[in-house]
Amino acid sequence: MAAMLGAASVWLSMSGAQAPGGAGQASKPIGQVASPSVDAAATPSAKPPHPFPDLRRSREGLEIAQDPFSSGHPEERRWLDQHGFPNGAQWTRYQRASDAELDQAARAGDTVAATMRDALRLGADPTAESRLLAAGAEGDLFALSLLSSWKAGAHAAGIPEAYAISRVAEMRGDLTTALHREMMLGGRLTSEQRLLAEAEALHLNLHLNALYRQKHGVDPPPVEMRPYQVDPDDTQR
User: pLDDT of 141-180, one tens digit each?
Assistant: First the structure.
């Protein structure tokens, strides 16, 4: 389970997660998470060809055993597709893709490629964080997962922000974030830090809802909880 739930964190850690361009940027104090805007997710009207046109964009027809994010629940695979998580083929290909290839795929309309591109640009591109948050407002919980992982690893001061963003993903349906949050954070929060992070999570969640209303003119759809299949071995420990 740890390997499955920590896949995004491992990838960010191995890739540097502040690329391209060098060292990471110190995180802002809690309460100052970058505010996404409607323009943050805008894409050009003329789409280039996808650099990987034969790559599957959903989990339909793919083996569950090759999915790094699924617990095996039949409905979870649909949920993962709808909430921005790459399938096994995308995950494998995009980890090896260049920044230019990810950018071209993103401009071709591939939201998974856009999320992974922006995660790699955190710390170098000042707008990458806003784009990930804007994607989160649209229901892309993989984007929030990558942003939270990066905050946790970029600087010790980012741990409260990482906690807050992780809690927002949980509020928006990904209950599995609670299973690996402490492992991801790599450090414990004080009682005061935890209270401030909880308050920031509530504020950010409302802000993402407001962003959705601003863009679409309606309330966000109801939260759909992630279906999850418990490993029988875990219940026996």
Answer: 999 999 999 999 877 788 999 999 999 999 999 999 998 8
The answer to whether the peptide bond before residue 20 is cis (omega within 30 degrees of 0) is: yes
Structure tokens at 2: 């740890």
CA–CA dist 42, 99 (Å, integer):
19
181's tokens: 């949050």
| Identity of residue 90 | Q
Tell me which residue of 13, 19, 63, 11 sits closest to 186, measured CA to CA: 13
Say if residues 93 and 68 touch (Cβ distance below 8 Å): no
Alpha carbon distances (Å) from 170 to 42, 72, 144: 26, 19, 10
Q: Reduce the DSSP state of residue 199 to 3 states and report it.
A: helix
Task: Tell me: pLDDT of 21 over 60.
Answer: no
pLDDT at 44: 52
Write the pLDDT tens digit of every residue in 94-108.
999 999 999 999 999
Among 111, 162, 161, which residue's Cα sits nearest to residue 138?
Answer: 111
Q: Check residue 139 and report its DSSP letter.
A: T
